Amino acid sequence: xxxxxxxxxxTLRVPPDHTFGILLKPDEYGAGDLLHMRTPGQYLRGRDRQxxxxxxxRQHLKKANYHNFQDLTSAFRHYxxxxxxxxxxxxxx
Length: 93
Known about the structure:
Subcellular location: Cytoplasm, Cytoskeleton
Helix content: 40-55%
Order of helices and strands: HHHHH
Radius of gyration: 22 Å
InterPro entries: EFHC1/EFHC2/EFHB (IPR040193)
Main location: cytoplasm
Largest sheet: none
Keywords: Cytoplasm, Cytoskeleton, Repeat
Shape: flat
């Protein structure tokens, strides 16, 4: 953990757990919206956005050859032999 000395914090009376900075709200559009040049009325939201994310995850897993396994745990055990030899703590199984 990096600790930085803040001279302003020393002169102000703020609680020790106070964090300086601003809170940014997430954008209403994603990278896919920008890449496909969607207008603000066409941004994917709600269920459509979830379906798009799930579709992208499925495509990535298919390209990574995970569709040849019964479940993801079997695939992780096959590809990650170093951590799965006799241990079940890494994936919480």
